[in-house]
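Quick board copy: two proteins, each given as sequence then tokens.
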Amino acid sequence: MVYKIKYPKSYSRQDFYTQRLLAVLSLFISTGLLVVLTNLPSIATVVNTSYTTHPLPPSLAQWQDNTNSGDYFDQVAKTGVGYLIWSKFPIQVYIQPPTTANHTQAQAWVNTVIETVQEWNVYLPLVVVDKPEIADITIIRQVPPLQFTRGHTPQARSAQTTYKVYENNRILDHEFTILLSPSQTGVYLQAASRHELGHALGIWGHSDLPTDALYFSQVSNPPPISPRDVNTLKRVYQQPTHLGN
């Protein structure tokens, strides 16, 4: 059985849909944020694997929103393998080290990205690792490819997030890759990194409020992680998934 998964472009208010799972799955979200679909190694594992609801990590289980801010869970896409939930902690994040002649600027870029990892670490256990082969999330200092849309001029993007699903020792697993532009600096790099990490941690969708880190568009004064972001993340991790099962 083959399913089609259709996602909206970013910077729009379209609802998310879930319809098809292809044989090789690779999804792309960017801060220019177009989602692209390609193919994954085997659909058989997905079809034959049951859904599981994993225990919440303590940091997320203990989270309480005293402001009753609500969430945007209805904007999060359920993929062909369920919600994109991590079940092994800490989540290992690899950040590409400086490789350019301008080492100082590159190191400042790395330091900013590390700060956003630490921000999300308050809610989900994360650790920065120095070996890309063991990483769950890989963050690369690279300009994302142009976004092509039929009938429109190709558009540049400042960030892009992709994931792939694979089988590991008979367990369905996934990994993410985030591309962040080297030209991004300061609060805008911080906002892009914070936003894309939100996707990689499981919020595969966008908020419609500019006060949330996962807002669908860039804003002049980027917000920190909001209670609505965390409320949404917590609801995602309360859902069933094929991943980790």
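And the next:
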Amino acid sequence: MVQGLLREIKVPGTGKTMTRRLAWGAPFSVYDDEDGHKAKRLRVEGYKVSGPDDTGMRLAWPPSPWQSVKVGDRLWVRETTSAEHRWAGTKPSLITDTDVWYWADGNPDDGDWTKPIVSIHMPRRFSRITMIVTATKIERLTAISEADALAEGVERRGDRDYWAGLNRGTDAVACFSALWLSLHGMGSWDKNPEVVAISARVIKANVDAPEARAA
């Protein structure tokens, strides 16, 4: 996915400009709601609540933070990274702005790749890719169009051969479905959840840099 973003920065219109995230969090039970007051309150707060027949035990799904993303927001991209060898085993929070930092596609021989810092632990101050949100929509996962699947970073290699990571398919949607399965597990595509589809303009700059703010 990072490679798709970098490809878009290098040659606009050829890389990743969309990302999909689950629209709802894990459901929880709402007991004893015969009068529907609990369901009404939760819906006002943005939750999705099961139907009126489930008065004994309703299910409620909280909105994911991705539903609050709006046009103009800046999203920073986390990547697998490494610090210098001398910082092996050091917590990312203790590595300062003056220390040398390496991304997975740059100077890998100089970084400490014996214990790479996985993307979820990448500090915000070391991000180098920013997505400027241009549009959002909520739709079912399998409603994705061929154009949107291509915008997700699926790369065309030949007339009927698509490539996304290690996933092949006869069209972009089939390839994206394989990618989704690799990220979310078996059966996740068939569940067809609601997702937040975010379109963005991609720039190579830290999310807090002046050029990102200006964009």
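Board note added afterward: The helical segments are 2-10, 37-44, 146-151, 172-184, 210-214.
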